[in-house]
Amino acid sequence: MTNCPICGSSSTRFFTSLNTPYLARDENYRIYTCSNCGHGVAVGRQDDQYLAEIYSDGFHHSTQQDTNDLSAPIYVNARQRVQWLTSMGLSGRLLDIGAGKGAFVEAAQAAFSAEGVELSEEAAAEARSRGIPIQSGDFLAKEDDQTTFDVITLWDVLAGFRDPRRVLAKCRDMLKADGTLIVTVPMVDSFVAQALKRFWPLMIPPVNLQYFSRRSLEVLGRKEGFELVGFELPSKKVAANFLCSKAFRSVGLFSFAEFLGKAVPAFPVSLNTRDIACVTFRRTV
Ligand SMILES: [Zn+2]
Predict the structure, then answer these.
(1) Ligand 1: distance of its center to the CA of 156 in Å?
(2) What domains appear along the chain, each with residue ranges and CATH number?
């Protein structure tokens, strides 16, 4: 049992449990959902040392990131995201949190004064070697903040934090008064999540510790000084080999998944399972 990290309710119910084999060790996680706001949270090993090992330098050598091909899904997604932000009339200074090797920041430089922050020193250093301004380190620990950003983006990273409210509070402090925060998150109230439970491909604790609902996103924003002004369930380009490999991994066929990850080409496939939300928050206080 655990209290909801979003609304604080102690009324939670068991959703599913699973073992995840990160770092070649099985760790058991139990997922609870909040009876009040619908938010899902993983309970299980998530201490600093374990998470640091998970996000060590190997994390960014995934099939989706390890490429210089500009037609690869990661670059296609990055360019589409930049177009989408500019279509909303956004401009100015942009900070990308969890920037990886900088594919999005690089694309965003066409329309913004863009920079990033990334936990992995190796990924950040690789980005910098290509002229992309990515600082390494934990953005929550940074103290040199000024309230200067027009836009902050968290692409597929908010779900990995133990305390999402603290993340939003920090983003609020770093944004201008009417600044915009964009997050993409896994949705536990989606049909796919409810149907597949522990076989849901996004059910990957401790990489995802938070599983959102429409209501939990609204509550999260409101509690930390944001208004939820946009909610979409966009499609996304993924690499065919990543998709095949993910499908087999989710049903436990790990060596077959590894084989397919190498054997199938990495061409982009458009996918919309309506279980990832792209949320726009505007700073209100
Ligand atoms: Zn709740």
Answers:
(1) 21
(2) 61-188+213-283 (3.40.50.150)
